[in-house]
Amino acid sequence: GSFEKLPVAGESRDELSQMGLTFNEMIGLLEENYRKQEEFVSNASHELKTPLTVISSYTDLLQRRGSQDPALQEEALTAIRAETERMRQLIEQLLHIARRSQAQMDWRKMDLEPVLSQVVTAMNASYDRQFHLQLSGQPLIVETDVQQLKQLLYILLDNARKYSEDRIDLEAGTDGAVYIKIRDYGVGIPKDALPHVFERFYRVDKARSRETGGFGLGLSLARELADSLRLRLEIDSIERLGTTVTIVFSGDFNVGELQSGQEG
Ligand code: ADP
């Protein structure tokens, strides 16, 4: 356009084209961001529409035939309750995601052991399943935000529970850096699906997920939590054998503190 006609000396022209490039990159990023937001809103709306459709169909049925048909009444109310619960869960997760950008970090140095014990005790109390805690015996000193770390652990343990039937192991130790491993012996994740599991609304098996109640938001939230907690998240899985998620406290601080802790 008109910019090209400006009389620019050689060097400044380079600068100008450099600025143009940076500007284009910025626009590209903004567009990409905007596209992701749009996709997110569209996915969320779609997920909310599905239970709404079920609820409104059953409401129509109830209105027309409910009073003459007690069995239908029971079926409809059960379905409406289940779908309402699903919508409530989704809205809760959406609110979590929306509030994450404003979350204030409360960094504290602490030993992981009591935190892990609390989480495992709570999971064992909530579910009729066996969550086992295995500790290496070394002190596991990290600097973290304990509430957010717990939230991350609950997401990962809940997945381990949803996609397996056996015991679930929570193992923690140090290997240069402090790590936590969550291991299940369940359905596992197919190799080609593995790179996608951290994407928002991604589910390996949509039909099965509808039964277990997932929306494909858990791991994307887990990744965001791990980012703000400066943790590395790794996932290994073998179909039909199980899945292991590893959390690594990769920050320099953690390693340094641990070394000085061992010396003292
Ligand atoms: P959801 O809420 O649907 O469980 P997530 O984002 O937590 O969503 O996980 C995305 C998908 O990754 C799940 O739908 C499931 O297919 C798969 N997945 C996650 N964790 C596990 C696991 N421990 N074992 C097997 N599959 C898993």
TrEMBL record:
The keyword tRNA-binding does not apply. It is a multi-pass membrane protein. GO terms for cellular component: plasma membrane. It is found in: Cell membrane. Its main location: membrane. Residues 43-253 form the Histidine kinase domain. It catalyses: ATP + protein L-histidine = ADP + protein N-phospho-L-histidine. Its EC number is 2.7.13.3. Keywords: ATP-binding, Cell membrane, Kinase, Membrane, Nucleotide-binding, Phosphoprotein, Transferase, Transmembrane, Transmembrane helix, Two-component regulatory system. The keyword Ligase does not apply. Residues 1-35 form the HAMP domain. GO terms for molecular function: ATP binding; phosphorelay sensor kinase activity. This is histidine kinase. It comes from Planococcus maitriensis.
